[in-house]
Amino acid sequence: MEEVSTSRYSLRALVLYFLRLGTTGFGGPIALVGFMNRDLVQQRGWFTNEEYVSGLAFSQLAPGPMATQLAMYLGFLRGRVLGATLVGIAFILPSFILVVLLGALYVQYGQLTWIGSAFYGVGAAVIAIILRSSWKLTKTTLKKDITLWSIFAFSFAATVLAGTEMLWTFVAGGGVALLLSYINHGRKRKQQLNIVVLPTLLLQLNSVAENRSFLDILFYFLKAGFVVFGSGLAIVPFLRGGVVDEYHWLTARQFIDAVAVAMITPGPVVITVAFIGYLVHGFDGAAAAALGVFVPVYLFVIFLAPVFEKVSENEHVKSFVRGVTAVATGAISGAILLLGKSAITDLPTTLILIGSALLLVKFKVEEPLLIALAACAGLLIKL
Fold first, then answer.
1. Domain span at residue 65?
2. For 106-140, what is each residue's pLDDT tens digit?
3. pTM of the model
4. Total count of domains within the chain
5. Could you tell me the CA-to-CA distances from 143 to 63, 137, 153, 314 in Å, in that order?
6. Dmax over Cα atoms in the chain, in whole Å?
């Protein structure tokens, strides 16, 4: 366990941590939020479990990719606006640079034929990583509370049956926990929770000119940043409908490659927008897409986190947050099952999954090395 007293309030240490996580954090949003819990709560003690759980709930309630929002929220807790700004940049920048470089190679040399082969192995390893992270996260947040485990089970089943995360389940889970809190405390006084209202103007951005200018790309991805909730993976179907079917900026094959690039690079999965932007309009397109998706996340944190922070100590608000968190963990577990169906398709991927789990749990192999080994296994099997 690292010393807490010398670094607990060090914004520099926190920024450096997120710079490293953005550089080496594989596995997508589910794994990333698990890493934050493991590193910042359990090992370093820089944040209490309550602070982390509140941040996780906030990142689920407000629009935007979950892992990035949680990172900025934690930065805000330690350094307010400056903290959210520096942490956000540190977390996003490494993967943005890497994705832009891959975009340049893609444009120069054509389709990345090795991506599919590498992802064949990486996908199975990623499932092992997120399984371990999800299990630790679930035990930490739900503990032995029967109500929370019931909400978790409902969310898990709903996610699996629907094939996606649904916003109403978060509201329902929080509402049930809140109602039980009132019953347990014997109070009849009603509390109100502020609900984020999305700007109508952004929701009406249904047309984007096809000349692919910087502003066109910026406004399209700005809309995406405001309407996507939860896991960064939730943005994938939304983007496909726009960039492939509606505006024809990319072919279906190019879009699949963009998603694959995001999945095998560290940092937030939603960084796939930078790869898409690069293919559409070069570096300017990549910058516009990244700004469009991440600026809404940043604005929600700096303007709404202070409000959320003030009311989060209220016992009923805490109950609502615990309910939302139980839904989030259930949805994450359901998403793992859905992802596993596409990643674990035959005997080799099953063996890679089992081997990855053993390396993680038994031999404590670091995630980047595991990803590299799985990519090599995929290349050897498929090429």
1. 11-196+295-382
2. 888 765 667 678 878 888 888 888 888 778 778 87
3. 0.71
4. 1
5. 27, 10, 14, 21
6. 67
